[in-house]
Structures are given as C-alpha cells and as structure tokens.
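Onboarding guide, step 5: your first structure request.
Type a short instruction followed by the sequence, for example:

Predict the 3D structure of this protein.
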Amino acid sequence: MNELRLDDVMKKIDVYGRVAFGAQCAAAMAMIAGPIVFVAACALPFLLWGDDHGEAIVAWLAGWALGIGSAAGGLGIAVFAWRWSGDWITEWPGYAVGFGIAAVADAVLAYLLFQTDVPALVAVIVTVASSFAVGCLVAGRLGGMRLLPQQREQRLQHRRPAARRR
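The system replies with structure tokens like these:
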C-alpha cells in the first residue's frame, strides 16, 4: 500500500480525532447551557415566589450550583478531549461548527424539557448523545481536514531531497 493511500485511510479512520470532536461538541453544550441556567436562576425564582419564600432561595442556590457546575464540567471535558483533537479542530471553523452543533442540541433540549412530556433525564441523555454522535460524524468533513493531505505532501517533498543527499 503506497503512502498516499495510507494517508487517505488514516484520515478516514481518525478515531481519536472524531471522538475528541464529539466530546468537545457535548462539552460545548454544557458551556453554553451553564451561563444560561446561571442567569435564569438569578431572576426566575424571585419572580415566581418573591423574596419571602424559602423555595426561592433554594432554587436560586441550586440554579447557581447547576449553572456553575455545568459550565465547569463542560470546560473540564473540553480540556480533557483537547489532547486527542487534531490541529483541524483547533482552527476557527472547528470551533464554529462545534458550538453550532451544541447550540442546536441545547435548543432541542430546551424544547424537550419545556414543551414535551419527555422525562428530563431522557431528554438530557438523548441530546448529549446526539451532539456527540453528530460531532463524530461531522469531524472528518471539516475544512481543516482537507489541509492534512497537502501538509503531508509538503512534508514528503521536504524529506525526499534529504534522502537523495545521503
């Protein structure tokens, strides 16, 4: 098998990069939802119950904890998955696509939570898994992936003259 054919095969089977991008899409969901939950938790409990109800304080603190925990968890997952991501993920198109997938998944999650009778845990699992799966499928089609064969060819051209000199 020649080296260019091997590059095509390896590009299509870049499992770590695909899983890393899927995990980063799921992490972006949490990083987007965290601040939204935090801000909503600052106002909604007091608008619903007023200042003189214990439920408002409990909901306020629980919302803060959920918002901060969600954003921190998403950031932690993103940093952990970053180790296996390729250079193509760390370019702006990768970030834009990842956050776009996450935003759509968050919108679907909000719809499932507030407009349907789907249990909350099922809605969260379905949307996070869907975001992860879409990220894994889309990862090989990002614009930066097309740069890899060109970069490999340039490296091969730089190696060939060095090999001829010996």
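Each response can be followed by summary notes, for example: The chain has a mean pLDDT of 79.
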